What does this fold into?
Amino acid sequence: MLLACEGDAEGILSAVGIGYLAHVAPARVRLGRAPVAQPCLDETALATPADVDLARRVLAGYERKVARGCPRSRGGACPGGCAESCGTKVLLAAACDAREAPEAIHRYLRVAFREGARVRSLGAEPDVAPFLALARAASNECERMRQFVRFSRLADGSYLSVFSPKADVLPFVGAHFAMRMGRDRFCLVDPRHGTAVFHQGDQTQAVRLDAAMAEALASEHALADDERYVRAMWKRFYDGLELAGRGAEGRGYDLRSQLMPKRFWGGLVELDPRSDDAGGPAPRRYAGGADEAAETKDGTASRGDAVPSLRSVQEEGG
Amino acid sequence: MDTLSKLGILAEAAKYDAACTSSGVNRAPVAGRVGMATGAGCCHAFTADGRCVTLLKVLMSNACSYDCAYCVNRRGNSCPRATFAPRELAELTLDFYRRNYVEGLFLSSGVIGTPDATTERMVECLRVLRHELLFDGYVHAKVIPGTSPELVDALGRLADRLSVNLELPSAASLAALCPDKDAAGVTRPMGQIASSIATGATRYLEGSRRRGGGALRPGPGSTLARRGGAEGLSRAFSPAGQATQIIVGASPEDDRQVLRLSDALYRRFELKRVFFSAYVPVMDDGRLPERDTPVPLRREHRLYQADWLMRFYDFAPEELVSPEEPWLDLDVDPKLAWALRHIDLFPLEVNEASERELLRVPGIGPVGARRILRARRAHGLDFDDLKRLRVTLARARHFVTCSGRSEADAPLDGELIRQRVVEHAKASAYNETRRQREGAADYVQGSFF
It folds into this structure.
């Protein structure tokens, strides 16, 4: 039997719950992502709508079963060395775009309900390893977001970033950016999965977007006056770090592309040639002139007596 | 000169400094302030050669009064000079941080007149950043040898990590190449930093005991972290510890000297990291190797691998290099080289070996060892299980057995293993390119003394 479910966590966990409640033998049930999943010749396909309450029950039951005896439930560390809770791992795996994700999660949850806490020692099992690989892939994608999101300052003073990860992980990283940005208002949009995180003051909210709203948010916006200058500074800084002879040509392979996948390059200010253009004169705070006495006219370094004292620098700076 | 132009000069001037991490401290966000720090750090970009860009790493000024032979900013070199105003650099840091370009600031400087005058300027920059712009992100500050203890202390109260560059692996080389520096001037601030960190830890523990708490370190989000540390304490002194950098290949010291030195530094000053920087010949000077004899990047890479083994795999320097073989093998990594020298200790039974023994197997790291230990609780493991656990079997399969069985095509033959590894490496695009660039001959360490 093929249970065709929605591809998000609610859909997958609901389908797992329906399969369990129907008392169908686990070996006779297979989960597939609707609408792309196709039944095999001898399979019956059944669409399973997402049921948030049922999904919550499945997740809570799983956590209860697996967390039994886990030091984490008493505030300790996971004996498996996992940074996330077991429940978070399921949600991460469900965030993956991979076609096989629903079935991998289904197989894993069946093992987990059968084995309880012992499932933590079963990482090499064929029904467990693919699930762990999915959770790891989504966790890596979260890290990519933390690394490669680039915010732009808009004319209204808020910050905006459009980012398209391979998994629907934006809700997992929203809190990270909220902590970084303090009281700065920002919006982080994932048009690929139709999700966004909005942050203002001390409120952060992840929301699902319809296609029109996602497109509107991801479109061009009026930038702050100094935005292009700041981008130009970042690109100048980045370009200045390059060491001759150590790049892809000197090394024989492109290490940067391995560490910084090309699918993100379009959104990276430092790799966008347009960032070279500062867009006009420097904003006042970056116009310079306050502290250049340490440079001599012939380009050589000056001695200490030519350097202004800290006090005079402070006075000049106002 | 506007900031864009200065940045071009001062980022370029700082690029030869290898150290750039934002790890080692957890700091939760505080209402009304901007930023935080996470223990693992975060790389926001990678340069064309694959180096991580995590901090805004610039010099406060490249108008240096010192005349270190190898340094592009040396007094005698003719190049464009620039100096940041403290507030200018602080605002730049915050602008980059808010756009998620960096985790914070890595502040170093050429010596503007005297170490104290330079450090005063750096302290002012950090004061503006921390107290006026309310920035709580990561800050790494470089201590210039010869700086007064009071200024080192002020810098350490504002920065998360301090570093004093050792520069060269021996006092003789330092004297020869850096006439304005001496070994005592470098180690003195290192000692002060280590002592201040230890004092801070003791005071923290005492404060914790008074409160009746048992936590040694505030985690993110904890009340302690939000209050900024232990009761009665101001900001902790250099909470992410201290680091140093050694330039390799500009002077004749071998890998054994470098590794013994770094081991001693870890022990004596409790350093978090020793960074190695393969000498990049940018200056003509009779005291330096010829400009067309660059140090192979592989030497730097092998030193980092050896350093990693010492820090996380419980290797001693004497196990990796010896008076008879003072250079690390450039063909195979230090762990494999060690295993080939001790082939009588293998094969190891995966289902019985201790964690320490597993960590000695090429291809098995701390994560793999933990996965094996956890998985074998359920049942005995075979090679398919190891594959599913994502253990790097290409290396490990020669050195392990599963329930007494070896893999058929992976005999424990030292010569064969070395041959396979070397051939595999030679076929790699990296080595192909390096060979073309460096000529067919093997690398010969430059001799100039």
Q: What stands out?
A: DSSP finds 17 helices and ten strands in chain B. Chain B touches chain A through 96 residues (CB under 8 Å). The radius of gyration of chain B is 24 Å. The longest strand of chain B covers residues 242-248.
